[in-house]
Amino acid sequence: MSQPKTMPASSTKRPPRTLAGSPSPAQDGTRAAAIASYETALHLMQQGKYDLAHAAFDKMLLSSPAELAERIRMYINACLLQIKRDAATFASPEERYDYAISLLNDGKYPDAREQFKQILAEHPAADYAFYGLAVLASMTGDSHECLDHLTNAIQYNPRNRIQARSDSDFQDMADDPRFTELLYPEV
Fold first, then answer.
1. How many beta carbons lie within 10 A of that of residue 126, not counting itself?
2. Strand ranges, E, within 15-154
3. Are residues 45 and 122 located together in one domain of the fold?
4. What is the pTM of this model?
């Protein structure tokens, strides 16, 4: 009769062995999470949300795989440079206006809007900021907002009426009777 085989004392249950250098399933999960966080931070950066991207990169730097650490540091520096650039200081509201117009021309409408509103927060009667917001609203197809801002610009400086008559940025408003009435009240 054969005796039942017994397991040697040294063969208790152990976690499965992995090849040297091969990640365990837990390490794979951690690495996948790090890569997902990395991609999210990159997406934030591409959207121009540098402060959020910086926070995301900074958070993942402590636990990131070594192969991502140097690249994460590079992106952190890029975010900090962009944040510093975005926090530009201006010697006058006119300089801020010029900057806002450059943003507008580059298609960075939310940033341009923010700059125009900053001018108005500091100088509530800045007709040129209202005019800039009117141009922005015209370019983005918001006719009601365009008319409101252009009305304010004209109230603070009647010469804005003449300027708007020949401004090609208002070409999409040309067929709106309210726009015509605002620019040509004498007719």
1. 22
2. none
3. no
4. 0.57
